[in-house]
Predict the 3D structure of the following.
Amino acid sequence: MSDLAQRWAPHVTVATVVADGDRLLLVQETIDGRHVLNQPAGHLEPGESLAEAAVRETLEETGWDVELNAFIGCYQWRAPDGTGFLRFCYAARPLRYHPERVLDTGIEAALWLTTTELQARHEQLRSPLVWQAVVDHLAGQRHPLGMVKEVA
């Protein structure tokens, strides 16, 4: 096995904390037969920037166009099965809803919840990344979008 094949490569994902007043936009999905809640999130695709991926994933999973307004943070997490993730999380504001849009496969619904409602459903969070991003967002953790640079 080559050194390259042995090199560990985490999954690179993006997520958006979309806030409208005291409500947050979340997605409900079924993973391994379990109903879970997540921010609009997904994998970085070839040729796109992290910011482009965050906007795309939000639209595909919720039907909402959003405008990114800050970078919240980057989170490293190891799932129970050992899979590694690097998650880049952005803050966004909702712009326009497309009710006719079919949501991504696996997404059951996009819903707006207050932080109190989300905390009451804590056992349904897909991963600890969901709540950590909310906590950081509520604490006012915001960095300029330019903090994440795409270098050509």
Q: What stands out?
A: The two ends are 31 Å apart (CA to CA). The chain is about 20% helix and 40% strand.
